[in-house]
Specification:
Layout lengths: L3 H5 L3 E4 L3 H14 L3 E4 L11 E3 L5 E3 L13 H9 L6 E3 L3 E6 L4 E5 L2 H11 L4 H26 L5 H4 L3 H8 L2 H8 L3 H7 L15 H10 L5 E3 L4 H13 L3 E3 L2 E9 L2 E11 L2 E8 L2 E4 L3 H8 L7 H9 L5 E9 L12 E5 L4 H6 L11 E5 L1 H4 L7 E8 L17 H21 L3 H4 E7 L1 H8 L30 E3 L8 H18 L3 H21 L5 E2 L2
Parallel strand pairs: 1-2, 1-13, 2-9, 5-20, 6-15, 13-19
Antiparallel strand pairs: 3-4, 5-8, 6-7, 10-11, 11-12, 14-17, 14-18, 15-16, 16-17
The structure holds flavin-adenine dinucleotide.
The site of flavin-adenine dinucleotide has 38 residues, from helix 2, strand 10, strand 14 and helix 19.
Length: 546
Amino acid sequence: MTNLSDKTSYDVIIIGSGMGALTVASILGQLQGKRVLILEQHYIAGGFTHTFKREKGYKWDVGIHYVGDLEDGHKFRRLFDFVTRGGVRWQKMPYIYDKFVFPDFTVEAPADLDSLRSQLIVQFPHEEKALIQYFEDVVRADAWYRKYILYKHIPSLLKPFVKPSKADTLLSTGSTKDYLDAHFSDQKLKGVLTSQWGNYGAVPGQSSFANHAMVVRHFFKGGYYPIGSSKTILQSIEPIVEQYGGAIKINHRVEEIILDGDTAVGVRGQQKKGKDFLPFEYYAPVVVSDAGAYNTYCKLLPASPRIKSRRESLSNHPNGLSHLCLYIGFKESPEKMGFKGENHWIFDGYDHDALFADLDAVTEDRMKMAFLSFPSLKDPEAKAHTGEIITFVSYDYFKKWSTERWKNRGEDYEAVKQEIAERMLNFIEGKYPGFKEMVDFYELSTPLTTEHFTLHRNGEIYGMHTTPDRLLKDWNQVKTPIKNLYLTGTDAAVLGVAGAFTGGVFASVELMGKSLGLLHYIKLEGRAEAFAKELKSKGIRTVFGG
Ligand SMILES: Cc1cc2nc3c(=O)[nH]c(=O)nc-3n(C[C@H](O)[C@H](O)[C@H](O)COP(=O)(O)OP(=O)(O)OC[C@H]3O[C@@H](n4cnc5c(N)ncnc54)[C@H](O)[C@@H]3O)c2cc1C
């Protein structure tokens, strides 16, 4: 049992240990000396930034294939280095960092906007004008989002100064498909431009142009991979949390946020210890949730008029994407087949909405798309060669096994997994003959695996679905109607590692400063700037290659 002083000795409690949580804990420790307690239900901390291992040293990340915006001098890089105290080293991916593979041609995405634009103009000369306009609009819609998230979080008095223009809002909150249909006539080009839709979790007809633009712009200068795998994020932040008197406790599942009237005062849940579940309670002046908006409002908080409309809105919001991931160990280096560490987006057509409409294709041997990535080729410190094949699938297909326990879902579940794994391998073999020959080991994760390890509804991979109106929803922000309760991570901002990190930055600033948040943000930037200078003066680099 926890004793009373342990129960109350923290300044902040965070539910979940993903990127959003770790960011808050590090900033609050470093800027305000806060003791932060992170409670994670999984037996490994880090959320989607955790890594797992199997035989022969095979090791995979669950939620990082590449991250952008890590060039020298970029604000995200500076803040990330500060939050991790320079503990994460990034390897730049090859100059061709993504390949968009269609039935009759392949587009190679270079880590340079001018080259990408020129290359597309050469391939699609009849769309030159539209392409020039498109890249300008991508920058506009991406900037709109930054302004809009700031607008949501600053005091009312300052709002008129950062309010995005109506024209930019209209551009950004329309669907990606509407934008493309209005500007382009070439179906193949529309398919090429939206090849990375899996990075933002919604096909062109379902995603906002802002979400599309954010991801496309994020990779204008290519992608980066954390050397030593994504677990280095947790490894660099955990000591910072501990240095300031905080702790990260795994196997601690929060079941309820404790309220005193309309104020959050603590959390209650169960700790898994061997085969037993032991109840726990912790109290602190501030509670932050990285468990996602749906879980926080609809599961962890008791029903009340204050959150009624948010609960309804979240319950009615369409489900986000669920996925299958085949984790592969190779007998030899995939370089043998010409792979260099780039990702491959492979499609059986150009109309992503139509391909996606056949969501359960993979369960019926009509697989239509796959994302193929090679963690070991991106990581100079990798000890064994690995790959991942990802495709999307409906949660409903697996629902009948959802009440069974992890690893005990029965022979029929295992048989289905085996069949699907074979199909995924065959799909890649069809594109790259000889691929299967290299495979030594594989293991499939389903939406039930993701649900089990993250508690995200239906095993959603990017939080609440990135529909055009998601960014406008009142729950898509750090502040909640409950006093001293804040959201962080993806659902507080936007998807992806950088998105969850942004949620963490906004959450930290908000709870440090209330209406003076802006001053705290300036202070944070100042500290990050000073830290960047310190790294430079010591000759410490955090980015390699390129
Ligand atoms: C297959 C896949 C590939 C991806 N690839 C990329 C990529 O290449 N680049 C990129 O930028 N992003 C990628 N992402 C997305 C990115 O990893 C996530 O958006 C981001 O890491 C989410 O961070 P988060 O802080 O919002 O929360 P999460 O990482 O989801 O962490 C939330 C944590 O809260 C815990 N939790 C939930 N409920 C409770 C509870 N009641 N009590 C205690 N703990 C709880 C969960 O167990 C989890 O550990 C990918 C994601 C997936 C799934």
